[in-house]
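A favour, since you know our structure tokens better than I do. Would you make up a two-line entry for one protein for me to read? Write everything out right here, beneath this request.
=====
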Amino acid sequence: MADGGQVCMLCRPALADAHFGRVRLWEDAHWRLSAVTAGPVPGFAHLESRRHIPAITDLDGPEAATFGPALARATRALRDAAGADLTYAYVFGERVAHLHVNLAPHRDGDALRGGPGLLDPAAPAVDRAVHAAVAARAARLLSG
């Protein structure tokens, strides 16, 4: 699938595996899980849709129906394999516009910083009214 005139790297998993130094751990008809074999987080992996889906907001069809079970299975396996306390799951899609979830097994004292560590410490707080308005709008969108 084309992505801005270029071939989507994740639609060509062998290319992504070579680029990121990944090994395939598991796949089914809709999802594949590949682990990165270098860096500071053992077990860091990508759960990605096999079909080209640009972003999580585009998730539909059989991928939507199987996303939760695939994510739960992958995070449990990575947590247990790494002897971690939990597995962080996060989606940032602006660099590779193909749905993928970054999975990072975590235990106290390792290289990961969760929670506020993901935010720029100098970022100003947004007014509570803005937070409330976004929450209310999302609730309306979900109710209708």
